[in-house]
Structure formats: C-alpha cells, structure tokens
Amino acid sequence: MSLENIRLATPSKDRLSRLKRTTGITHWNVLCRWALALSLADASTPLVREVVTDSNVEMSWKTFAGPHGDLYLALLKQRCVADGLEPTDENVSNTLTIHLARGIGYLGAHRKMTAIEGLIGAVATV
Amino acid sequence: MLLRKITLEEFGAYRGTQSLDLTTKKNKPIVLIGGLNGCGKTTLLDAIQLALFGPRARCSGRGGKSYETYLRESINRQADPTRGAQIVLEFTVTVDGTEHYYKVVRSWHTSGKTTLKEFVNAFVDEEYGSRAKSGRRVEPELKYSRVLSQEWADHIESLLPLEVASLSFFDGEKIESLADPERAASVIESAIHSLLGVSTVQQLRTDLLALQRRQKLSDEEQHLMDKIRAEEQEQQTADAALENAEQQAAQRNSELGKARRALETLEAAYKQEGGNLFERRVEIEREHAEISARLAEIRSSLIQLAAGPLPLLLMGSHLKELRTQAGRERTAAESHQVLGVLEERDQWLLDMLPAEAKTAVMGKLEVDRAKRAKSAGLKVNLGLSPDTIPQLSALDEALSRDQARAVELLQQAAEAADERVQLERQLAGVPAKSKVEAIQKEREDQLQEVARLEREYESNLNSVDELKRRLAYVSASLQRAHEEFVRTKVKAEEVERIIKYSEKARKTLDQFGDALLKRHISRLEVAMLTSFQTLMRKQGLVTDLRIDTDKFTLTLADTDGDPIDPGRLSAGERQLLAVSLLWGLMKVAGNHLPSVIDTPLGRLDSRHREHLVDRYFPYASDQVLLLSTDEEIDEYLLGRLKKSVANTYTLVHDDTTFTTSVIEGYWWNVGASNVA
C-alpha cells in the first residue's frame, strides 16, 4: 500500500519545525495526527489538490498513525467516500497527503494552536 | 729648735776640724762667741745656714756667685780640695710633742777642675726627747736616714722655714736695713706669714682647693651617667612612639566609628531603596523558576497527552458515522451469511412440505429472503474490519479519560501560569538591579572598608601593646640604672658635700687667717713697741706703733699721735727699731727658735749697749748665739752678761797661716769655759 511511507512538503516541514518549538511537542507524527484531525474535521473540500512532498521528513504509516491506525484509515476512507471518491489505496493516500498539508496550515494559522494549552484546549474544553 | 753642736772641717778660714758646743742651759740662753774682725764670725753664721739650707742659704760670703763656685771657694785654701770640706750641725727639734735629735752632715769636694760633688747625710734619733727628760744630757742614738738625706731640703723646710731662719739668723751689719719701712714691710709680711702660721692657714686653703679639685666623678660613674642619659633618651623615644601609636589607634578607632556609621547609613538607604525586596527577588525568582518548572512539567504532560488519541476527538461526528457504517457493514455481512443458510433450510423445508403448500410457502420464503438480501447489500462498503466497533468503543473510553485528564491539566496549567504572572509582577516591583547595584556596591565597599579599618585598628592596638611592653622594659632598665646611680649618687653627694664643706672651711679659714693676721699684727705691735721702749734711751720719743694689715708698713707715732718718719731716726735708733722688730716677732712666735746675732752693737752708744745686754740678749730667745768683737761685748758688758751666758768661745786667727781656730772662753776668761 502507498501509505507505507508518508513524506511531508517543504513548507509543511518548515511550519512543523516552528510548531515543534512553540508547542514543545518533539515528534513529527504527533503534530501530523493533530493536523490530519483538524483538516478532516473541516467538511469543506481542500482547495489544493496536489501537494509536492519534497522534504526530507518521512515516516511510516505505523509511525504516523500509532495504535489507532485502523481508525485513521477508516476515517480517511470515509472521507474519500464523502468526497465522492472510491476509497482506493491511491485515493486514500492522496487524501492523506492533501489533508495533512491543509491541517498543518491550520495548526500554524491558529494563534491558539501554537501553544500546547491551545492545542489541547481546542478538544478538551468542547 | 735648739742648736746643739757645730763642727767645721776645712770650711773657709777654719782649718782642720773645729767644733763648737752650742748647748744652752736654763736661764743661761746665751752662747757668746768672740772674734776680731775677719776671724770668721760671719763664716760661722754662714756655716749654720749652709748646713741647713744648702743652695738656698743666704750666705753673706756668697754674693752673686753660683752655689758651686761658692762651695769650691769655701774649701780651706790649705786643704786638699779633692778631700773637700764638711759641716756637721746637730740640733734638736720638737716634732709632734717629742724632741728629735738631728745630725746633718753636708760635705763636698772637687774632682777635677770643674766637677764638684756635694753630699748631704742626715741622721736622726726620734726617741731622744723621751730619754732626755729633766734636762739631763743624754747621748743621742743617731741613725742614718736615707729618706731624710735624699729629701733634706723639703724636710728642713718643714722644721725651719728659710724665711724664718733668715730672721732668726741676722747679721748686725745688715740689721739696720730692717728699719727701712719698705724692707720692714716685707720682713713683717714674710714673718707673719711663715713664722706665725698664717701661711699654714693659707696652705690649708690651697690644699682644700686641691682636694676639691680632686673630687671628680670616676670614669665608671661617668659611664653610668651616660648610660642613664642614653636610656632616658630611649625611654623618651619609646614614650613618643607609644603616644604616636596610641594617637594613631585612637584616630583609627574614630575612623572606624565613622566608617561604621557610614555603613549604617548606607544600609538604611539600601533598605529604603528596596534593598530587602531586592534580596527577596532571589526568592521570588526561585519561586518563579519553580512554578515555571511545574508549568513545564504540566506542559510536558499535555504534550504526552497530545501524542495520544486526543486528535480524534476533533472528529466526533465522523466517528459516529463510522460507527453507523460499521454497524451497517456488520449487519450486511451477517445477512449475507444468513441468506445462504436460509436458502438451504428453506429448500430443505420445501422438500418436506407437500406440494400444495409448497408454492405458498415458497413465495413467502422468497419474499423473506429478498428482504434479507436487500439488507445484505450495501450502497457504501468501506471494507471495515470487523473489529472496528470494539475499537471505537475502546476509543470512546480512552477519549473520555484523556479529555478529563486534559481538562485537569489545563486547569493546573492555567493556575501555574497565573501564579507565574503574579510572581513576574512582584519581580517587576523589585527595584531595578542597576539602581540598587550602586548603593549595594557602595555598601559592599563600605563593608570592606570597615573590615580593613578593623584590621588596622587591631594592628595598631597590637603595636601599642608592644610599645607598652617595650616602654616597661626600658623603664625597668632605667630604674635599675637609676638605682645603681643612686648608689653612685651617694658618692657624688659625698663629693659634693666635701666640696661644699671644703668651700665653707676655706671661707672660714680665710676669715680665720684674717683674724689671725690681725691678732698677730696687734700682738706684734704691742711686742714691738714694748721691745722698742725697753731698749730706747729716749723713753718718750715713740709712744705708738702701728702695722698696716694690708701692706705691713710700719708707722711710728709720737706723744701727740703724729707719725714719725723713720728717716728722722738716727742710725742707732733705727738699729734698735730693727732689733725690736725681730725681738717682737720672736716673742710673738713663742721664743722657740735660736737667735743668732752677729755684730749686734755696732753703732750703738754705751747706754743702748747696756740696754741690749741687760734687757734683750738674755730674753731674746731660748738660745741666743752672740757673735761679737771685743769692742762690742767688752769686759764691762761681759760682766753684766755673765750670769746669762752658758758658754763662751773665742775665734783666734793665725795671721801667718790665715787659719782660724776655736778656743773656749772669752778674752777675759779664756780657758774658763763654763762660767757659773
């Protein structure tokens, strides 16, 4: 499956590098999970359809998804279907890449999200 | 002093050995020696003086000649000059209450043309007086005395001063000159000084002065004094140093006090400027750090939490959909499985059924199966795993747990952040470091200054102590030196006392000398006047006689009190005046010296001669040697004098051999030596 390895785009990588500093979260995968969740939570379709994953940051799906890999995969498939796409491997992988890029953008854009309290607060105080 | 015997050997005109016994008896003081002019009467007088005084003798025959020439010429012309001449004089003197018998032998001879040797040998018998009591004649036991022989000149001066001797041995030819006021003055002066003991007083004064001058501090004492001075100097130095050090210490102390006060002021200022708060800053900062650490801890917990399933919480609705979908998919799967089984079972049932019922039942069963098939078919199939539903349930559980935890942590984080803000505000209230820094630095400097001053003060106190010890040591040493000095001082005081009292004694002696002089002079005046009046034919001519105490000049006064010029007196009268001067002197001196009177009556008339013979010669002294010509003491006068005469001699001159020999007796009683 093409989800074996996940590679980030350079702008995403730069943003994540800053977020690593500001939030204190040291792992790329944790931040990426939050970014994916944020983007998937937004029902609108991402405007960017193509992302060039050209940075040197790369991780396996297992590393990315952690213990809840099945659920993330299910959610991605569900998104594909919701967007009117066949939940093929290719589509799932594409969706992941696009949403990851958008989510990272969201993380950096929200001032609150740049601190750990804000990040957690976004889910905990709901 | 009494002359005992004179022996002449080859002296002058005396050829060979000539001897005269000059011993007198009680009430017979006169030894009468007759001789014509040129027989050697004066030579005899010279011999006595020469024997006693040697070179100092005032011999009539010497004139201006040197002593050696005189001695050479005094050797008898017919004698052998290399054997020489000799005079032996024996006499007794009372020394310290005892009569001593002396024999002095003066001899001389020539050896060669120019050299002349003179010898003086003195013999003495110091015990003579004790053996010769009650006037009996005792042979003296004479012993040669080397000391006396060598120092005869000094010794004779103490027995019979030359000045005195010249008064008691006088030449009648020259006596007249004594009447001259100038000459008389010097005679009186010397006589009073030497004969009457005034010179002794003066000598005493001089001796005292010498004693005084001898009293000086010894070198050791001087050294001690120097030492004391040095130590006094040192003590002064130490004293000054101590004072200086104490002053310094006091100054340091006051400086220290000032510095401490300044420190207090600075500390007060420091407090006022928020110094204490500043000190609290550290604490606040510590607390701040603590709270920051806690916050960081909370954050790290949050970060850990963030790594969990929390992001999935964002997708609540999607998860719900997923759950429904999963439910649907399960149902579809179940229906799919049941459908095949049911078809088999339906077939099996249909087979068992009768045919009539078969169709009806078959229809009913097909409807049921179609219904079931409908539920098994899904519009969307995500191909979810059959575990999805339990996974979702587990996720729900985990999410609710993590959410609660997140809320808790966020609460804590907020509190910590609040507290931190509080602390940060407090820190802002703490004065700016730079503002306090200056005063703090000043305070620290002041603290150091105080410490420095304290050290200096300490060292000053130490040096004061040390100096005190040193001073004590020096003082003790000085004390010892002083004690030693006191012992010396006692001696010094003794010296001072000696000086003081000798000064006093000298003054007293001076006064005593003056008083003695006056007394002697007044006594001399009386004695002289009495003598003069006794001897003078004209009783009323001179009624008063004065001797000036300063100049010793003689003044005569007549009945009216007017002074008489001695020049107005006749030659005979002047001779009498001179005789009475000598007599008066002898009387005042106590008649203890022999009087040798040479040619006593030269210019006198018969009345005066009688007066002298009757009133003077027997009383002139205890021993009177009368050297006379046959014209002076003639047969008539001899008769008047006889009862006082102890011995008579006649000097006989042989005109052919030019030698004189001594014969006992006088012209009119030759051979009768002891006229009773």
Structure, explained:
- The complex is a heterodimer of chains A (126) and B (676).
- In chain A, α1 crosses α5 (89-109) and α2 packs across α5 (89-109).
- Chain A has helices at residues 10-23, 28-41, 61-65, 69-82, 89-109, 116-124; strands at residues 5-7, 58-60.
- Chain A has a two-stranded antiparallel sheet with strand order 1-2.
- Chain A has six helices and two strands, in the order βααβαααα.
- The radius of gyration of chain A is 14 Å and the shape is globular.
- In chain A, 61% of the residues lie in helices and 5% in strands.
- With 126 residues, chain A is mainly alpha-helical.
- Chain B has 18 helices and 15 strands.
- In chain B, a hairpin with a 2-residue loop joins β1 (2-11) and β2.
- By secondary structure, chain B is an alpha/beta fold.
- In chain B, the strands form three sheets. Chain B has a six-stranded antiparallel β-sheet with strand order 2-1-4-5-6-7. In chain B, strands 8-12-13-3-14-15 form a six-stranded mixed β-sheet.
- The longest helix of chain B has 103 residues, at 433-535.
- Helix content of chain B is 60%, strand content 15%.
- Mean pLDDT of chain B is 81; it is low at 671-676.
- Classes of the chains: A mainly alpha (126), B alpha/beta (676).
- At the A-B interface, α2, α4 and α6 of A face α11, α12 and α14 of B.
Describe the secondary-structure layout.
The complex is a heterodimer of chains A (126) and B (676).
Chain A: E1 5-7, H1 10-23, H2 28-41, E2 58-60, H3 61-65, H4 69-82, H5 89-109, H6 116-124
Antiparallel strand pairs in A: 1-2
Helix pairs in contact in A: 1-5, 2-5, 4-5
Chain B: E1 2-11, E2 14-21, E3 30-35, H1 41-53, H2 67-74, E4 85-95, E5 98-111, E6 115-125, H3 128-131, E7 143-144, H4 146-150, H5 152-159, H6 162-168, E8 169-171, H7 172-175, H8 181-195, H9 198-214, H10 219-272, H11 275-306, H12 316-352, H13 355-376, H14 388-429, H15 433-535, E9 544-547, E10 554-557, E11 563-564, H16 571-589, E12 595-598, H17 606-616, E13 624-628, H18 635-641, E14 645-654, E15 659-664
Parallel strand pairs in B: 3-13, 3-14, 8-12, 12-13
Antiparallel strand pairs in B: 1-2, 1-4, 4-5, 5-6, 6-7, 9-10, 10-11, 14-15
Protein name (chain A): Putative DNA sulfur modification protein DndE
InterPro entries (chain A): DNA_S_DndE (IPR014969), DndE_sf (IPR038472)
Organism (chain A): Actinacidiphila reveromycinica
